[in-house]
Design a protein that fits this description.
The protein is an alpha/beta fold. The protein has one domain: 3-Layer(aba) Sandwich (Rossmann fold). The protein contains 8 helices and 13 strands. The strands form 3 sheets. Strands 1, 2, 3, 4, 5, 6, 7, 12 and 13 form a 9-stranded mixed beta sheet that branches. It has a two-stranded antiparallel sheet with strand order 8-11. Strands 9-10 form a two-stranded antiparallel ribbon.
């Protein structure tokens, strides 16, 4: 019997009930990394291993593979096919020559109807109504899975398993989404020499506390619940970073909780080029600027790609499932080439 962490780097061949998809030619294999044995009343079990699928194009022309890491409650099928039957990001990056490792309605698919944050009214890219009973929404919602409630334990598990994956496959480009973003920070902190670039799509934030929905103070290390490597090293584990609130001077953007000066520096993450990408109509449009500002304050080389500001309009939080997902993938590829070379 095996217990597998619910937030996996996962890629599966899925058959959706909508249109057949013309996939990029590739070879497929899979493996497991990480995990630990535990003794239970049922015997010796293994838990917290990560299942990974490897997709290799017929001709690999890029120097580093891409790891696609999904968010909590989702699974790796998000990156394979879209619920309207279109090809997902895995196919786009395979076609571009990358080897690929691929790991509710009011927030994701019909945000313009609920209008819970100012930018929600800009959402136009979700195919269909985004509501239960719509064929495309139902195909998407069937992919949603349960998650681990204990955020700190979840982060610990994913940092360990993600590090084991990098030990196995070598230097890579890591692309995360939403709650997967906390794992991107912790894995980059543990393995900065093996993360050639980190792309955070609407990463969980803002620093220190939640926003828009709850406002809980949930990340004492600003980006994560588990320790990150700062310099000077914090001495108080329960309150490692002194904070201050910085008001926003722009309408419809939240105030930011930042470090009090002099700010501690993120010693390891600062070695990694970082791109934070934000959808125009996503609830992250309210606060992703705080994540970027915090990273810069902590000495991290970071760029903020705001889709609406580069002419890509109407995207919510689940951009890789929306109509114009290929256009967004092309922007990410452009940044990779600019940052790492062709």
């Amino acid at each position: 019997m095996h217990t597998i962490t619910n937030s996996l780097i996962l890629i599966l061949f899925a058959s959706f009930t909508l249109a057949a998809v013309n996939e990029t030619q590739h070879a497929r294999s899979y493996f497991f990394v990480g995990g630990e044995y535990v003794e239970t009343t049922a015997g010796t079990l293994i838990q917290n291993q990560m299942y990974v699928e490897r997709l290799s194009p017929a001709h690999i022309s890029r120097p580093y593979p891409i790891i696609l890491m999904h968010c909590a409650g989702q699974d790796g099928t998000n990156f394979l096919n879209k619920p309207d039957g279109g090809r997902g990001w895995a196919s786009w990056f395979l076609e571009a020559g990358y080897e690929v490792y691929v790991t509710i309605s009011s927030r994701f698919t019909a945000v313009q109807t609920f209008n819970l944050w100012p930018q929600a009214k800009l959402h136009t890219q979700w195919p269909g109504s985004g509501m239960p009973g719509d064929l495309i929404f139902d195909a998407y919602y069937q992919s949603v899975v349960q998650g681990i409630a204990n955020a700190t334990e979840h982060e610990r598990i994913m940092q360990k398993a993600g590090s084991a994956l990098l030990d196995k496959i070598g230097p890579s480009i890591l692309v995360t989404h939403s709650q997967g973003g906390v794992h991107g920070w912790s894995i980059a902190d543990a393995q900065p020499d093996k993360i050639k670039a980190l792309i955070q799509i609407d990463p969980r934030g803002p620093p220190f506390q939640e926003a828009v929905f709850p406002t809980d103070f949930s990340r004492p290390w600003a980006l994560t619940s588990i320790p990150l490597t700062f310099s000077p090293a914090p001495t108080n584990a329960s309150a490692p970073l002194a904070t201050q609130v910085v008001a926003s001077t722009t309408a419809n953007l939240t105030a930011c909780v930042m470090q009090a000066e002099p700010a501690r520096k993120l010693l390891h993450i600062a070695k990694v080029p970082v791109l934070v990408e934000t959808g125009e109509a996503s609830y992250h449009a309210v606060y992703d600027h705080c994540t970027v500002r915090f990273l810069k304050q902590a000495g991290v080389e970071v760029e903020h790609l705001e889709l609406g500001k580069v002419g890509i309009h109407g995207n919510g939080h689940m951009q890789f499932l929306e109509r114009n997902s290929d256009e967004i993938a092309a922007k990410l590829h452009d940044w990779i080439v600019k940052t790492l070379g062709d």
